[in-house]
Amino acid sequence: MDAGWAGQPIVETMTWPLEPWMIKLISDPGDAGYVPLCAALLWIMSDAGARSVMIDDQEAWEGAVNKLWPLICSGEIELNGLPRGGGLTVQVPAHRLTLVKLLPPLRDSLSDVLATAPSHVVCTLYLDQQHWSHHFNDRLYITGQRTPAWTHLQLLKAELLRRWPRPAPTTKAQKDCYGWLLQQMKASPRSKPKSKGALWSEARARFKRISRRQFDRTWDKAITDSGAHVWSRAGRLARKSNRRTK
Questions:
Q1: 140 forms bridges with which residues in the sheet?
Q2: DSSP per residue over 191-224, as a string?
Q3: 245 vs 107, more confident
Q4: Triad 22, 121, 62: Cα angle to 5°
Q5: Is residue 10 pLDDT above 50, yes or no?
Q6: What's the pTM?
Q7: How far apart are CA 55 and CA 2, in angstroms?
Protein backbone atom coordinates (compact mmCIF):
# COMPACT_ATOMS: atom_id res chain seq x y z
CA MET A 1 0.00 0.00 0.00
CA ASP A 2 1.23 3.47 -0.89
CA ALA A 3 2.54 5.20 2.24
CA GLY A 4 1.26 8.47 0.83
CA TRP A 5 -2.28 7.34 1.69
CA ALA A 6 -1.57 7.35 5.39
CA GLY A 7 -4.28 9.06 7.39
CA GLN A 8 -6.89 8.91 4.62
CA PRO A 9 -10.08 6.85 5.06
CA ILE A 10 -10.48 3.81 2.85
CA VAL A 11 -14.25 4.11 2.52
CA GLU A 12 -16.69 6.77 3.57
CA THR A 13 -18.31 5.91 6.90
CA MET A 14 -21.73 4.36 6.29
CA THR A 15 -24.58 3.49 8.60
CA TRP A 16 -26.76 0.65 7.38
CA PRO A 17 -29.33 -1.53 9.13
CA LEU A 18 -28.70 -5.24 9.04
CA GLU A 19 -30.85 -6.47 6.16
CA PRO A 20 -32.25 -10.04 5.75
CA TRP A 21 -30.15 -10.67 2.63
CA MET A 22 -26.97 -10.28 4.68
CA ILE A 23 -27.77 -13.44 6.67
CA LYS A 24 -29.95 -15.25 4.11
CA LEU A 25 -27.50 -18.16 3.80
CA ILE A 26 -28.16 -18.93 7.46
CA SER A 27 -31.86 -18.11 7.73
CA ASP A 28 -32.71 -20.21 4.66
CA PRO A 29 -34.00 -23.72 5.47
CA GLY A 30 -31.50 -26.54 5.88
CA ASP A 31 -28.38 -27.05 7.97
CA ALA A 32 -25.93 -28.43 5.40
CA GLY A 33 -22.86 -26.66 4.08
CA TYR A 34 -20.74 -23.72 5.20
CA VAL A 35 -21.48 -20.05 5.81
CA PRO A 36 -19.13 -17.03 5.63
CA LEU A 37 -17.55 -15.84 8.88
CA CYS A 38 -18.99 -12.33 8.51
CA ALA A 39 -22.53 -13.65 7.99
CA ALA A 40 -22.14 -15.81 11.11
CA LEU A 41 -21.15 -12.78 13.19
CA LEU A 42 -24.07 -10.73 11.86
CA TRP A 43 -26.36 -13.65 12.71
CA ILE A 44 -25.14 -13.66 16.31
CA MET A 45 -25.20 -9.88 16.79
CA SER A 46 -28.81 -9.73 15.55
CA ASP A 47 -29.98 -12.59 17.80
CA ALA A 48 -30.38 -14.91 14.84
CA GLY A 49 -32.07 -12.23 12.76
CA ALA A 50 -34.73 -11.48 15.38
CA ARG A 51 -33.31 -8.13 16.53
CA SER A 52 -32.90 -4.97 14.46
CA VAL A 53 -29.31 -3.72 14.58
CA MET A 54 -27.06 -1.44 12.56
CA ILE A 55 -24.08 -3.16 11.02
CA ASP A 56 -21.80 -0.42 12.39
CA ASP A 57 -23.00 -1.03 15.97
CA GLN A 58 -19.55 -1.51 17.50
CA GLU A 59 -20.85 -2.83 20.81
CA ALA A 60 -23.06 -5.44 19.13
CA TRP A 61 -20.22 -6.45 16.79
CA GLU A 62 -17.74 -6.89 19.62
CA GLY A 63 -20.33 -8.85 21.59
CA ALA A 64 -20.74 -11.27 18.68
CA VAL A 65 -16.97 -11.58 18.22
CA ASN A 66 -16.53 -12.31 21.93
CA LYS A 67 -19.06 -15.13 21.67
CA LEU A 68 -17.84 -16.78 18.47
CA TRP A 69 -14.09 -16.15 18.24
CA PRO A 70 -13.06 -17.99 21.47
CA LEU A 71 -14.93 -21.07 20.20
CA ILE A 72 -12.98 -20.88 16.94
CA CYS A 73 -9.64 -20.27 18.66
CA SER A 74 -10.18 -23.25 20.95
CA GLY A 75 -11.08 -25.50 18.03
CA GLU A 76 -14.65 -26.08 19.21
CA ILE A 77 -15.89 -24.54 15.97
CA GLU A 78 -13.80 -25.26 12.90
CA LEU A 79 -12.82 -22.33 10.67
CA ASN A 80 -11.99 -23.23 7.09
CA GLY A 81 -10.38 -21.11 4.42
CA LEU A 82 -8.36 -21.04 1.25
CA PRO A 83 -4.63 -20.61 2.00
CA ARG A 84 -2.56 -18.30 -0.19
CA GLY A 85 -1.40 -20.27 -3.21
CA GLY A 86 -3.64 -23.20 -2.36
CA GLY A 87 -6.31 -24.73 -4.52
CA LEU A 88 -8.42 -26.39 -1.83
CA THR A 89 -9.88 -25.12 1.44
CA VAL A 90 -8.43 -26.50 4.66
CA GLN A 91 -8.86 -25.83 8.38
CA VAL A 92 -7.19 -22.64 9.61
CA PRO A 93 -4.85 -23.43 12.57
CA ALA A 94 -7.07 -22.43 15.49
CA HIS A 95 -4.33 -22.01 18.12
CA ARG A 96 -2.71 -19.25 16.05
CA LEU A 97 -5.80 -17.03 15.91
CA THR A 98 -6.09 -15.86 19.54
CA LEU A 99 -4.70 -12.34 19.02
CA VAL A 100 -6.23 -11.76 15.59
CA LYS A 101 -8.55 -8.74 15.37
CA LEU A 102 -11.83 -8.99 13.44
CA LEU A 103 -12.73 -5.80 11.57
CA PRO A 104 -16.45 -5.14 11.02
CA PRO A 105 -17.70 -4.75 7.44
CA LEU A 106 -17.41 -1.32 5.82
CA ARG A 107 -15.52 0.09 8.80
CA ASP A 108 -11.88 -0.42 7.83
CA SER A 109 -9.45 2.31 8.80
CA LEU A 110 -6.10 2.66 7.09
CA SER A 111 -4.22 2.03 10.32
CA ASP A 112 -5.98 -1.33 10.62
CA VAL A 113 -5.00 -2.63 7.20
CA LEU A 114 -1.42 -1.40 6.73
CA ALA A 115 1.14 -4.18 6.31
CA THR A 116 2.56 -3.18 9.70
CA ALA A 117 -0.83 -3.52 11.43
CA PRO A 118 -1.49 -6.40 13.83
CA SER A 119 -2.84 -9.55 12.21
CA HIS A 120 -6.51 -9.11 11.40
CA VAL A 121 -9.50 -10.39 9.46
CA VAL A 122 -11.22 -8.04 7.02
CA CYS A 123 -14.89 -9.05 7.13
CA THR A 124 -17.03 -8.51 4.05
CA LEU A 125 -20.79 -8.65 3.53
CA TYR A 126 -21.96 -11.66 1.54
CA LEU A 127 -23.58 -10.48 -1.71
CA ASP A 128 -23.89 -13.67 -3.72
CA GLN A 129 -21.85 -16.74 -4.62
CA GLN A 130 -20.20 -15.12 -7.63
CA HIS A 131 -18.89 -12.14 -5.68
CA TRP A 132 -17.89 -14.30 -2.73
CA SER A 133 -15.91 -16.66 -4.96
CA HIS A 134 -13.75 -13.80 -6.21
CA HIS A 135 -12.92 -10.84 -3.96
CA PHE A 136 -15.91 -10.24 -1.68
CA ASN A 137 -15.07 -12.67 1.10
CA ASP A 138 -13.51 -12.65 4.56
CA ARG A 139 -9.69 -12.47 4.51
CA LEU A 140 -7.01 -13.06 7.13
CA TYR A 141 -3.96 -10.80 6.95
CA ILE A 142 -0.78 -11.49 8.91
CA THR A 143 1.47 -8.67 10.12
CA GLY A 144 4.16 -7.80 7.57
CA GLN A 145 2.36 -9.42 4.63
CA ARG A 146 0.57 -7.33 2.03
CA THR A 147 -1.60 -10.12 0.63
CA PRO A 148 -4.02 -12.25 2.67
CA ALA A 149 -2.68 -15.48 4.11
CA TRP A 150 -6.19 -16.95 4.01
CA THR A 151 -9.35 -16.06 2.08
CA HIS A 152 -12.92 -17.42 1.91
CA LEU A 153 -13.16 -17.94 5.69
CA GLN A 154 -16.23 -19.99 6.59
CA LEU A 155 -17.67 -22.33 9.22
CA LEU A 156 -20.21 -25.13 9.35
CA LYS A 157 -23.78 -23.88 9.19
CA ALA A 158 -25.01 -26.75 11.37
CA GLU A 159 -22.47 -25.94 14.09
CA LEU A 160 -23.52 -22.28 14.12
CA LEU A 161 -27.22 -23.15 14.28
CA ARG A 162 -26.64 -25.64 17.07
CA ARG A 163 -25.47 -22.79 19.29
CA TRP A 164 -27.54 -19.95 17.82
CA PRO A 165 -30.69 -21.55 16.39
CA ARG A 166 -33.24 -19.85 14.21
CA PRO A 167 -35.92 -18.02 16.22
CA ALA A 168 -39.42 -19.43 16.45
CA PRO A 169 -41.45 -18.07 13.51
CA THR A 170 -44.02 -16.32 15.72
CA THR A 171 -41.32 -14.65 17.80
CA LYS A 172 -39.54 -13.34 14.72
CA ALA A 173 -42.82 -12.13 13.20
CA GLN A 174 -43.62 -10.18 16.34
CA LYS A 175 -40.18 -8.57 16.48
CA ASP A 176 -40.29 -7.70 12.78
CA CYS A 177 -43.73 -6.16 13.28
CA TYR A 178 -42.45 -4.15 16.23
CA GLY A 179 -39.61 -2.71 14.14
CA TRP A 180 -42.03 -1.87 11.35
CA LEU A 181 -44.50 -0.11 13.68
CA LEU A 182 -41.77 1.69 15.59
CA GLN A 183 -40.34 3.10 12.37
CA GLN A 184 -43.73 4.45 11.30
CA MET A 185 -44.50 5.94 14.70
CA LYS A 186 -41.16 7.70 14.89
CA ALA A 187 -41.70 9.09 11.41
CA SER A 188 -45.13 10.48 12.36
CA PRO A 189 -45.28 10.87 16.16
CA ARG A 190 -48.05 13.53 16.17
CA SER A 191 -50.45 12.10 13.64
CA LYS A 192 -51.62 8.58 12.84
CA PRO A 193 -51.77 8.21 9.04
CA LYS A 194 -53.89 5.03 9.18
CA SER A 195 -56.29 3.47 11.65
CA LYS A 196 -55.13 0.66 13.90
CA GLY A 197 -57.45 -1.70 12.03
CA ALA A 198 -55.89 -0.81 8.69
CA LEU A 199 -52.40 -1.29 10.09
CA TRP A 200 -53.40 -4.65 11.58
CA SER A 201 -54.58 -5.79 8.12
CA GLU A 202 -51.29 -4.66 6.62
CA ALA A 203 -49.27 -6.33 9.39
CA ARG A 204 -51.16 -9.60 8.92
CA ALA A 205 -50.21 -9.57 5.24
CA ARG A 206 -46.57 -8.66 5.94
CA PHE A 207 -45.94 -10.92 8.93
CA LYS A 208 -47.88 -14.09 8.19
CA ARG A 209 -47.54 -15.78 11.58
CA ILE A 210 -48.42 -12.89 13.87
CA SER A 211 -51.63 -13.16 15.89
CA ARG A 212 -53.95 -10.31 16.82
CA ARG A 213 -52.93 -10.59 20.47
CA GLN A 214 -49.24 -10.34 19.53
CA PHE A 215 -49.99 -7.36 17.30
CA ASP A 216 -51.82 -5.58 20.13
CA ARG A 217 -48.92 -6.11 22.55
CA THR A 218 -46.47 -4.98 19.90
CA TRP A 219 -48.63 -1.92 19.16
CA ASP A 220 -48.63 -0.85 22.81
CA LYS A 221 -44.88 -1.35 23.19
CA ALA A 222 -44.10 0.60 20.02
CA ILE A 223 -46.24 3.51 21.23
CA THR A 224 -44.44 3.54 24.59
CA ASP A 225 -40.97 3.27 23.07
CA SER A 226 -41.58 5.86 20.33
CA GLY A 227 -43.47 8.34 22.49
CA ALA A 228 -46.14 8.60 19.76
CA HIS A 229 -49.01 8.55 22.24
CA VAL A 230 -51.46 10.04 19.74
CA TRP A 231 -51.48 6.61 18.07
CA SER A 232 -53.26 5.18 21.13
CA ARG A 233 -56.34 7.34 20.59
CA ALA A 234 -59.43 5.51 19.43
CA GLY A 235 -61.80 6.70 16.73
CA ARG A 236 -61.50 7.92 13.19
CA LEU A 237 -58.47 9.70 11.82
CA ALA A 238 -58.56 13.47 11.77
CA ARG A 239 -59.49 14.79 8.36
CA LYS A 240 -58.39 18.04 6.82
CA SER A 241 -61.11 20.62 6.64
CA ASN A 242 -62.28 21.75 3.22
CA ARG A 243 -63.37 25.13 4.53
CA ARG A 244 -61.38 28.13 3.44
CA THR A 245 -60.06 30.50 6.03
CA LYS A 246 -60.64 34.17 5.51
A1: 121, 150
A2: --SS-HHHHHHHHHHHSTT--HHHHHHHHHHHHH
A3: 107
A4: 65
A5: no
A6: 0.68
A7: 29
